[in-house]
Amino acid sequence: MFQYILKRIIYFIPTLFLVALMIFFLIHLIPGDPVTVMLGQDANPETVKQLRQEMGLDRPLPVQFALWMGSVLKGDFGHSIQTRRPVMQSISERFPVTLSLTILALLFSLLLSIPSGVLAAVYQNTRKDYLFMIGTILGVSIPGFWLGLISLLIFSVHLRWFPTIGFVPWWVEFWEGLRYLVLPSITLGLFMAAVVARMTRSSMLEVMRLEYITHARAKGLTEWKVIIKHALKNAFGPTLTTIGIQFGTLLGGAVVTESVFSLPGLGQYVVTSIYGRDYPVVQGCILFMAVVYVIINLVVDLLYAYFDPRIEYQ
Amino acid sequence: MQGVKMSKKSFRLAVFLIPFLLCGGAGEGTAQSVPKKGGTITVGLNTDVTAVDPHVTTAFITATVLNHVFEPLVGHGEKMELVPVLAERWEVSPDYKTITFHLRKGKLFHNGREMVADDVKYSIERILDPKTGNPRRDILQKIDRIEVADRYKAIFHMKEKDASIFYVLAYIAPITAIVPKEEVEKQGGVMKHPVGTGPFKFVEWKPDRHLILERFDSYKPQPGPPNGFGGERAVYVDRLKFIPVVEESVATMALLNKEVDFLQYVPFKDVERFRGDYVKKGIVIDEVPGQSWYEVFFGCKNAITKDVKFRQACAHAVDREFVTQAATRGYAARNPSFVDVQNAYYSPAHKTWYKKDLKKAKQLLQEAGYKGEPVEIVTTKKYAMMYNIGIAVQSELAEAGIKSKLTVVEWANLLNLLYKGDYQIMTFGISPRPDPVSAYIYTKYNGFDDQFPRMKQLRDEAQGTIDFQARKKLFEEAHQLTYQGVPAIVFFNYNYFHAYWKHLKGYKMWNTNFPRFWGVWLDK
Prior knowledge:
The complex is a heterodimer of chains A (314) and B (524). Chain A has 314 residues and is an all-alpha fold. Chain A is 77% helix and 0% strand. The relative contact order of chain B is 0.15. Mean pLDDT of chain B is 89; it is low at 1-31. The chains are: A mainly alpha (314), B alpha+beta (524). Chains A and B meet through helix 2, helix 3, helix 5, helix 7 and helix 12 of A and helix 6 and helix 12 of B.
């Protein structure tokens, strides 16, 4: 097991290097540069040229890449061109916000999706199942942007249960902090809930047809024990893969939710920085997200062994 | 005389009612006229500030906040005239080679130290230092050196005549603010905790969360009534809290929920709703004519659009009123000139422009040898007005038989194309340019100056004189030249809107779109 983890960590190195290489060259290939955006309407060619020289942007791309990689290996992601703040400082301030939002969204979606997916499988082709199908189609189809605005209108403006804007970290004021995260996590989690629920339902249906389930019933086990202990545990493998992928997607894709709810997260920061061609921020944040993503994948892979004892890690 | 006669009964009623009516009016006036200290004004911004060091950015949003923290030597008054701020007066030598600024005594930085001439020298030299990355540095290049004559006197020695220097020093963003050397050095060369001489001092900035300013109790206001960025700056509120709210509809919800007291931006589509339902709830909406100008530029070096006759045909083809309506719903001053309608240099001569005349347009196209080749209109979706102008212009050109395709690019790419002059038609919008020299500079980038070299001469001549009438004439000639050669079709200066709760008293909007929270108090 230890060897397996070590091997996976070694595999991370080329993966992350490729990610770094790709993001560096892709962002530099997009037309427009940070100096022009920074100077805006004052970006006359002479000033642009001078500033580009001062910032080292006139050097050949491979040289710039080597310099950046050198700094990254020392743990220095550089400074934002727009704000002049260290990229690592911004990541450390913003990542906990995105992570909190994503974890709460994940919890909400699991609480909703697993029981409903199991129930839909158990009551296949009944009214309950059809209702479930309609619910999941809605969940997948409703745009997060619209859902966010509507939930703000109902729960913040009319009912005044939650704040409309602002953010208080839950690690500073726990309950107040949660108030700021409830609506965004429900908005973000609903899409994931629909996807996971559908996956749970189809995996459950597959497993429920297998012989060992008939055997468990023949042993005289209660139906719920058969479903929860025998069927769900085995059906959870594919669901876990979906959760892993979705979790990674949520981490990088919370942009719309962060924007609607004015949350100071990483997603919104990356998008703003892409538009501003803030190279150090884009490169640093995406590389950081890639690290998080490969770690999540590793955790998911390790969890497989728990749900499927046939899997051994070598 | 019959009309003014009054019955005894009516007279008694009037005598009885007049004191009540007067009291009623006085009551409202009294509420307005008694400022109170205390409270926090929460301001919704449509995006977050980009930096808190005044010398590194011209971003409008950063200036909105930092104009409360920093002050320049000179500023703009309500009519865009130059007014003293940190400098109480200045003298220009007859040969324009030296400008002497006499500083106010007793102006304190937020760290408690007095601002003196050494700080002026340090700040301007910091701006001129390429390492600082000041976007306006090149406009100050005509400064040779700064001499500290005494504690309160700084002399600018100029390499050559430069009338525009006052406009750069008074720039509406605090890009030439006076900063204390010791604070910049203490903070590692870039200000993360800005220290200025303004009426509010910086408390904290949590990116994308909030930026907080606090009243600076030792602030010494300038004498005289408030006038733009000059005059008295009485501060009543304890704190200003700026919160970025990116989504327009969420910002409106936050205002309705009283989570923000003030919105610095109201989209045109919401203006009527604000004026109807929201005003009834107690929200005030202010409107002033703005100075930003929106236009389409022609690439004067590119195929088809390099032909003056083709550009004149376009000017005849486009109904500017139609385009203005499409882009602003009519909330704009129609203006065909690079000089905005609020500008001191604006005159009736700047109103001259082409009328829509399809027959004339088609005749000019024929003379230009246009054979229906498609031209490209480059635009961006970052600013809705630019995109809407693109769509409207495309349909107008089609009426005259000009084929065009609309290409949407990102803002960064659009800026690149603008300065390379590498486009045929481009929709664009430019923020206020109180000095028209910095407005007419855009003809340098699209190749118009090469076709009409007189334009550069006019700019140079305007930079070489501070005589108002002489400059005015030069700018009128510059407009005449744009009429003749059509480097662009300018449509409008759009109006600015601010919305706030009526418990915010004493607020006065002005035409730079920068809110000023001095002289404002809360009456909740």
